[in-house]
């Protein structure tokens, strides 16, 4: 892996989703510019991504030393931009609409890949700036997706992970109705073993959707459904088009179908009372989610929630998120105990050299966001292949086992 000190051109790909992401992006930009300064300007710095799209003019004024600023629609211009800045040129392009990129470079391990099926969002949750950054919901053409997926399958990808701001609404901009089932059934005809669906909005996950995930042969029994809260009043203020009763019923249906459920919650939304927070905490204790992420509410300028009264202190928001994260960690550890002695089908992803163990995932574990299965083997194993692993214990939140 190259370092900034070794590079001729440093590309900083930024995020602007929440305050922490913006802070991290700014820190990376400053670090890159410091490296450029130390080289007496010999190195070039290109800023791109969501922060560049959302705050293009501000970044241009604040970071005059940057050689180029590109938005989310200009990734295919990276090579020509590098060539231009190498000749001491400047590039500023953040306004065009994004487009489908047919010739992608796979940056994940070769056995799994993400397929972005749509961009933008029309849900307009009051706390979220995505519509301002990414624009309206736009589904990629099915023929383009199938062509890209076919190449991935031919190249040996075993697990295809469908992503978008809202996967469940794929194709709704074509004719007013979603076409996610149609797309997945076409993808199932290709040589994938697992197809994973991330980011499904609760109001779209009806009985038909649950049955689809449960019964489709190549779709992993896993749903990522961001619930955000359980209190009906707060859900309404967030413009989440569901109620407490709906959420409770939905969680029960997903569990009854034997589907692993990952979700996310916002802590400290404007006006969240102690009683509402306690209700959320009790909900977590009661439902014992397989996986859940907790985020302190991030105040985003230009969003409706930014104008709400009764914003909570950052320390209160962080404390609530941290407390629920600790609670969820205990829940996962307890769930791990119930898996000891069971055998799971695991895809081998990597090696943990410190622990001297192979690293894999069962179908109820998504890459990078969930826990993993650490396992040993007496025979030779190959990355990207599937193995039957008997669970013998745990290491923190990770499972530990041996190949059967």
Description:
- With 404 residues, the chain is an alpha/beta fold.
- It folds into 3 domains: 9-93, Rossmann fold; 112-331, tm_1862 like domain (pyruvate-formate lyase- activating enzyme, Alpha-Beta Horseshoe), CATH 3.80.30.20; 340-403, Beta Barrel (OB fold (Dihydrolipoamide Acetyltransferase, E2P)), CATH 2.40.50.
- The protein has 13 helices and 17 strands.
- A 5-stranded mixed barrel has the order 13-14-15-17-16.
- Helix 12 (274-287) runs parallel beside helix 13.
- The longest helix has 26 residues, at 314-339.
- The two termini are 35 Å apart.
- 37% of the residues are buried.
- The mean pLDDT is 94.
Helix content bin: 25-40%
Low-confidence stretches: none
> What's the end-to-end separation, in Å?
35 Å
Q: Nearest-angstrom radius of gyration?
A: 22 Å
Q: Remind me, CATH topology of the largest domain?
A: pyruvate-formate lyase- activating enzyme
Counting helices, strands and paired strands, the structural category is: alpha/beta
The average pLDDT score comes to 94
Please tell me what the overall shape is: globular
Count of discrete alpha- or pi-helical segments spanning 4 or more residues: 13
- Total beta-strand segments: 17
CATH superfamily of the largest domain: tm_1862 like domain
- The ordered H/E elements are EHEHHEHEEEHEHEHHEHEHHEHEHEEEEE
Q: In the residues, how many domains can be counted? A: 3
Please identify the top-level CATH class of the largest domain.
Alpha Beta
Strand content: 15-25%
Spatial order of the strands in the main sheet? 13-14-15-17-16
Give the biggest sheet: 5 strands, mixed, barrel
CATH architecture of the largest domain: Alpha-Beta Horseshoe
